[in-house]
Design a protein that fits this description.
The complex is a heterodimer of chains A (172) and B (152).
Chain A lengths: L2 H19 L11 H17 L7 H30 L3 H15 L4 H21 L3 H39 L1
Helix pairs in contact in A: 1-2, 1-3, 2-3, 2-6, 3-6, 4-5
Chain B lengths: L1 H17 L15 H9 L9 E4 L2 E6 H19 L8 H19 L7 H31 L5
The chains are: A mainly alpha (172), B mainly alpha (152).
Chain lengths: 172, 152
């Protein structure tokens, strides 16, 4: 495997993954972080190969996909690790808020109890062992789905922006 | 046409997702999905309480700006069903939309005015509706490349 080929995606995916996890920093994260990471990965790839030709959509999707993959991999890995070490995460912190929120919904008491019980179990697992199968599973599924989707979208939009710039400089 | 309708439906589904709380009274079992969706959208939005869209006691799962971006994408995809987007959209239009959004962020951050959900939504909407044509253009180029003989 040629590592250099995946280096831009690795660097940008790692950065995006960290931005999703680190407390305080993650409060600045928004829906533009991953597409931006894929866009920067495209620019880095151009610089590393010294190839400033039009970027094919296939290549853009590939780089976006790998950026998303690396972001998901590092994001979920760090999140699970931090949860395991600190026995704290968003579920624990926002649980009282969740209780209040669920309590306000116009649904039966039985339903509210069932949902809260499910989250109470997850919360207890994390507080005692630092690990919950359900939490980790949903985290990994979410991370991979969202990060890949946004990475590929960013790759496609990014390639159009770069190609547009290349075309403009050619004709000017 | 098929691609544009599919894109519209997928983006609509995504938008329904962040207005999920409004659907819970329709079927109370949906409540069980809410924390999972909350986590899904938390990956792409800070979900600061003061910046969420609220109505009737329900809250959106993304902030006003993110909601604006996605609804802008939805509007762009709806528009594309009736009128084909440009094949190679101009970068200047996107740059202007990004600049307007950054100006809003800068203006309320330095205290020129207070954060406004409406302004955040509108600036997001502008960016989203313009970004759709770039996304669509990229997708069309991808399909053309796939259809080329020898593609693997």
């Amino acid at each position: 495997m040629e590592l250099k080929k995946y280096l831009p995606s690795l660097v940008c995916g790692f950065s995006a993954g960290v931005l999703q996890v680190v407390p305080l920093v993650k409060s600045f994260s928004c829906c533009l972080v991953l597409p931006l990471a894929a866009f920067i990965a495209l620019i880095l790839e151009q610089k590393s190969t010294n190839n400033y030709e039009i970027i094919s959509a296939k290549k853009a999707v590939k780089i976006g996909l790998f950026t998303g993959l690396f972001a998901a991999l590092f994001g979920s890995l760090f999140e699970i690790l931090i949860t395991f070490i600190t026995k704290q995460n968003d579920i624990i912190i926002t649980f009282p808020e969740l209780q209040k929120m669920v309590g306000n919904f116009p649904v039966t008491e039985e339903m509210k109890k069932e949902v809260l019980q499910l989250f109470q179990n997850v919360r207890n697992d994390i507080l005692t062992t630092g690990f919950s199968w359900l939490y980790s599973f949903s985290l990994v599924v979410n991370d991979f789905f969202i990060d890949i989707l946004f990475g590929v979208t960013g790759g496609l939009i990014g390639s159009q922006i770069i190609n547009n710039r290349i075309n403009n400089s050619k004709y000017n | 046409m098929k691609i544009r309708v599919t894109l519209f439906l997928l983006i609509a589904l995504w938008c329904i997702g962040f207005f999920f709380e409004w659907l819970i009274p329709v079927n109370e079992k949906l409540l069980a999905l809410l924390p999972f969706l909350h986590q899904t959208y938390s990956l792409i939005c800070h979900q600061e309480k003061v910046k969420l869209i609220t109505s009737n006691g329900f809250e959106s799962l993304v902030c006003s700006r993110c909601a604006g971006i996605y609804i802008g994408l939805l509007a762009g995809s709806l528009f594309s069903i009736f009128k084909l987007p440009y094949k190679n959209p101009d970068i200047k239009v996107l740059s202007v939309c990004i600049l307007i959004m950054l100006l809003d962020i800068a203006a309320y951050s330095v205290g020129i005015y207070h954060y406004s959900k409406l302004i955040a939504f509108i600036t997001g909407f502008l960016l989203g509706s313009v970004a759709f044509s770039y996304f669509y253009s990229g997708l069309i180029h991808l399909f053309i490349e796939i259809k080329k003989p020898g593609w693997n």
